[in-house]
Write a structure and sequence with these properties.
By secondary structure, the protein is an alpha/beta fold. It is about 25% helix and about 30% strand. A nine-stranded mixed sheet has the order 2-1-3-4-11-10-9-6-7. The protein has a two-stranded antiparallel ribbon with strand order 5-8.
């Protein structure tokens, strides 16, 4: 009973404070994850921590669920071709193109769709490469590892970061309709 009395006292004290209700938390980012990513809980946790460090308010949806409308979608790195239904992928691209949303795909191993039209690059191959590389972004250098190293060539995409060893694009940005698509050529969540 002493704990319950103390909790009541704290509740009464907080209730007497002259403040309005707290505003609802605004979620601005939707992470799309595969159902098998439950086996990779560390990837989801890592994605959440990275989002919070970037000042984002993330929510997570399985790729088989209805994807709500958000200004930013992130499709996490695991095997993309097993990750998302084509209908959901096409709906996200429509939201980018027509509604001005943004889409970031971080990539480990994937069969990517609509690269030229929606990401502004073409792929010239994708050899496995697990060695450590260095990329420069806004004057800062960071180490990273590819999963598959997508040998991409820009056909309109802005190259934001390149692999210092051979110039392979690591981060791209592309104006797609009213929004933007971003491609990170490495699995950020796995680092």
């Amino acid at each position: 009973k002493p704990v319950a009395k103390m909790m009541k006292k704290v509740y009464d004290e907080i209730s007497s404070l002259p403040c309005a209700d707290l505003p609802e938390r605004i979620k601005d980012t939707c992470f799309i994850i595969g159902e098998r990513m439950n086996a990779y809980q560390y990837l989801v946790s890592s994605a959440y921590v990275l989002a919070k460090q970037a000042g984002l308010e993330p929510t997570f949806r399985y790729s088989t669920q209805t994807i709500p409308e958000y200004p930013l979608y992130i499709i996490a790195s695991d095997e993309f071709w097993q990750l998302i239904r084509k209908s959901n992928y096409n709906e996200i691209l429509r939201r980018v193109r027509e509604d001005g949303a943004s889409l970031l795909i971080t990539c480990h191993d994937a069969a990517l769709l609509n690269l030229y039209e929606s990401f502004g690059f073409v792929s010239k191959g994708a050899p496995m490469d697990n060695s450590t590389h260095i990329a420069e972004f806004n004057g800062d250098k960071f180490p990273f590892r590819y999963g598959k190293k997508f040998l991409i060539e820009s056909i309109g995409a802005e190259i934001l970061a390149r692999d210092e060893s051979d110039g392979t694009p690591v981060l791209t940005k592309f104006k797609y309709g009213n929004g933007y698509t971003y491609f990170l050529n490495c699995p950020l969540e796995k680092m």
